[in-house]
Every structure is written in C-alpha cells, then in structure tokens.
UniProtKB/TrEMBL annotation:
GO terms for biological process: proteolysis. It comes from Lactobacillus bombicola. Keywords: Hydrolase, Membrane, Metal-binding, Metalloprotease, Protease, Transmembrane, Transmembrane helix, Zinc. The keyword Kinase does not apply. It comes from the Bacteria. Residues 80-208 form the Peptidase M10 metallopeptidase domain. CDD domains: ZnMc_MMP_like. The keyword Metal-binding applies. This is Metalloprotease. The chain crosses the membrane at residues 6-25. GO terms for molecular function: metalloendopeptidase activity; zinc ion binding. InterPro entries: MetalloPept_cat_dom_sf (IPR024079), Pept_M10_metallopeptidase (IPR001818), Pept_M10A (IPR021190).
Length: 210
C-alpha cells in the first residue's frame, strides 16, 4: 500500500511539472504530444542593464505551411497602435514574400495582435506561437505590443516610426524569423531603429523557399 501511495505522489509531481513547464500541447483525444510553443521578444530601447539579456530562441526553423496568414487586430480602439500595425502589415506585404490578410473574425485568424501594459518587463513586444513538432509548421501566433514603452508611459522614447518597426519585428517572428545580430535588420533584438531591410527579405525568402 505504501508503495502504491508513493507511486501516486510521484505521478502527481510529474504531472504538475509538465503543467507548470507548459512546453507542450497535448491532443486530448489521443493523449500524445502533438506540438510545441515558443515565445520571442523585442527588447526595449537603450539604457538596458548589462545583466538583462535578450531571449533568443534556438532550435529548428518553423514557418507557416504557405506564405500567408489571416490577422485579427485586437488593439482596443487605440488609433496610434492600429495605424502602426496596419503600416507594418503593409510593409511586409510589399515584400511579396509573405502575405497578411486582415480578418474581423478572431476565430478565423491565424495571428492575433494585441496590446499589453507591462511596466515590469524589458520588452516592447513579444510574440508567442504554436507549431507542430513533426513538420515545424506554425498554426497559431499571438503578437503582444507593450504600450508602456511604445506609447511613452516610460522614459524610453518611441516615435511613430519606431513603433512601426517594432510591429514589423514582431510580425517577423510571427512568420518564423528569429533574431538577427546584424544591427541593420528589423529582426535586430533591440532599439527598433530599422524597418524591414533586404537581409530580412532574403531570410524570409530562404525560409519559404522563394
């Protein structure tokens, strides 16, 4: 009996560990690991502590099965953020590497774009997404724009251009691009100084075999 109780305790601890880590999504009907999730960030401007590191995602490449996705904009009628998001979407569409189409039906969206107010983080934006482990194909992404930094509730100044660059950066993550340590790139992990550059287009083409 003691052995059985010990087994139950160990099993409970193991299940709790899996739930807390939340690294995998389980298919309830099959009870098998079906896909994985990731989170990537756009670091805020300068003045960052030396101990503050940008989170860089490693591992295999992930992408959408086809170079297109439906986007639902959920920005609480925030005109500046909506305008910047629309401009960022248009900028990516002009590259002709990936096409974003807007939808008013959240349930039909592949990507949602929302705003958050997080003063106790180091990030102007972050993107989470789900992808299938076997294929690496994305099936859902969520872009979160931190208005604490982007709309100057903090001491970090973001003009409109840099807000657009930040949204372009997060959309880059949403299509599968990782951080680029080359500074003249929209995917550079800090400061949001550059829009979509030729190197970003080239990386997106490589990702989608164009």
């Amino acid at each position: 009996m003691k052995s059985f109780n010990y087994f139950l305790v160990k099993l409970t601890c193991a299940l709790m560990t899996v739930i807390i880590l939340r690294n995998f999504i389980f298919d309830e009907s099959l009870s098998i690991i079906k896909c994985n999730s990731q989170v990537v960030y756009a670091q805020k401007s300068k003045q960052t502590s030396k101990n503050s590191k940008t989170k860089v995602v490693t591992g295999n490449h992930w992408r959408w099965q086809k170079p297109r996705a439906k986007v639902y904009i959920d920005l609480n009628d925030n005109p500046d953020m909506i305008s910047a998001t629309n401009d960022a979407i248009s900028a990516w569409n002009r590259t002709k590497v990936f096409t974003f189409s807007k939808t008013k039906n959240k349930k039909k969206a592949d990507i949602t774009i929302s705003q958050v107010y997080h003063p106790y983080t180091n990030y102007a934006g972050f993107t989470t997404f789900q992808y299938y482990l076997k294929t690496g194909f994305l099936y859902e992404a969520a872009v979160n724009l931190n208005i604490y930094y982007l709309q100057n509730f903090s001491n970090y100044y973001y003009n409109y251009e840099r807000i657009v660059n930040t949204v372009e950066h997060e959309l880059g993550h949403a299509i599968g691009l990782k951080h680029n340590n080359i500074k003249k790139s929209v995917m550079y992990p800090a400061q949001s100084l550059y829009p979509i550059e030729p190197i970003d287009i080239a990386n997106a083409k490589k990702l989608y075999h164009k």
